[in-house]
Amino acid sequence: MGNTCFTQNKFVIQNKKQSDKIKFKLINNLIVIPVDINGVNLSFLLDTGVSKAIIFNFLNVSDTLQIKNTETIFLRGLGGGESVEALKSTNNIFKIGDAIKLNQELYAVFNNDLNFAPRLGIPIHGIIGLDVFKDLIVEINYSARWLKLTEREVYKNRVCKKCERINLEFYNGKPYLNARVELNNKTIPVKLLIDSGGSDALWLFENDSLDIKSSKNFFNDFLGHGLNGSVYGKRSRVQTLGLKTFVIKDANVAFPNKENIFFATQIKERNGSISGNILKRFNIIFDYQSATMILRRNRSFKEKFSYNKSGIELAHNGVRIVKQIKNTYNVKKSSSTNRNNTIIFNPQYKLILKPAIAIVELRKGSPAEQAGLKIGDIILAINSKQTHEFTLQEIMRIFYDYDGKKIKMQIDRNGVVMYYKFILQKLF
């Protein structure tokens, strides 16, 4: 094509329409897209909150990806740990659908602990954000689970009376918007990072001078993993979150501990983040070059906010052997004087490997902790159903169910099978 220039250091759509639609998975409010790197098919998080393409589990895939032209650097992110050692690699070929970039920088981390796959229940090899958004118009249809990438020259703006156009500001390549929250009966303007790589709804950084602080109704909890370790803080609710004319009521909010977000708070005037549990309520068009995003609410807009009432966080942790019955049967034919046939079942078993699902975080004082469960327990069954019959996310959704729901668990603790039960409790 005449307008294609492979020497450019940008993503180019390699088809006649100069546009491509890619299906994605929405796992725990996070967008997982297929990315081809140097001919290897991988799964990446699409994260507006990152400015660098990062690949995890580097030691397991380095030979396959043929990563070269490297230099050692150190990366910082959320969490209170040390900087993370990584290799910066150039001249990598990235392909997302029909979008191709021939000279993509890639930051490959050494730390095997940086692995989202166990907590999401599917393979996650890395994160990409700015490199895609800065080159193309990016449409995210959360309700239909597709992503559309389009060259700016051929993109046509559609008139949308039910949409809101939001102006964006950028710091270090990351997008911010202005919103308003109602907290403790006060309406407060806030500047928020747009973070599609976060599964929560809203994070706010406590600031007494701006009256950004939790209400009296809160509980302390694990909030998630950052590049530099775990993040903890308070969970509560805001009365409203306003994005121009869109008003979301009783949204979940988290107030991360200051020691876990030191570098995030260094961005001038940043007050927090708006993440997947809010973003999924809209279909969104990002146009970084014109510094705008267009929001149209979708069928999830009025979905009620819930939270984990059990106090348990789960992750895949190795594998366990599961015995499955494979029934076969024989038909014993009757004699000529008796026309009744007899069916004889011959139960057979096969042994298969399934992911072991372990408790990796346990909120202090939670129903699960008070019942006696411990970090490291392997969940064998929940409410009389074997865990290998669930996905990890299906199990986690049980913990977000109604107040008063009974939970029964069969667990393996160091080879000893034990039984526990507790009731989901409303915290505010």
How does this model look, in words?
The chain has 6 helices and 31 strands. The N terminus is likely disordered. Strands 14, 15, 16, 17, 20, 21 and 23 form a 7-stranded mixed β-sheet that branches. The chain is mainly beta and 428 residues long. It folds into 3 domains: 143 residues, Acid Proteases (Cathepsin D, subunit A, domain 1, Beta Barrel), CATH 2.40.70; 134 residues, Cathepsin D, subunit A, domain 1, CATH 2.40.70; 112 residues, Pdz3 Domain (Roll), CATH 2.30.42. It is globular.
Give a brief outline of the structure.
Helix content is 7%, strand content 49%. It is mainly β and 428 residues long.
Beta strand %: over 45%
| Quaternary status | single chain
The CATH architecture designation of the largest domain is Beta Barrel
The poorly predicted ranges are 1-7
The largest pleated sheet is described as:
7 strands, mixed
Mean pLDDT: 85
- The CATH class of the largest domain, by name, is Mainly Beta
Number of strand segments? 31
Count of DSSP-assigned helices? 6
Derived structural class: mainly beta
Shape summary: globular
- The CATH homologous superfamily of the largest domain is called Acid Proteases
Structural domain tally: 3
Q: Radius of gyration from the CA trace?
A: 25 Å
CATH fold-type name of the largest domain: Cathepsin D, subunit A, domain 1
| End-to-end C-alpha gap | 59 Å
The proportion of residues forming helix, as a percent range, comes to under 10%
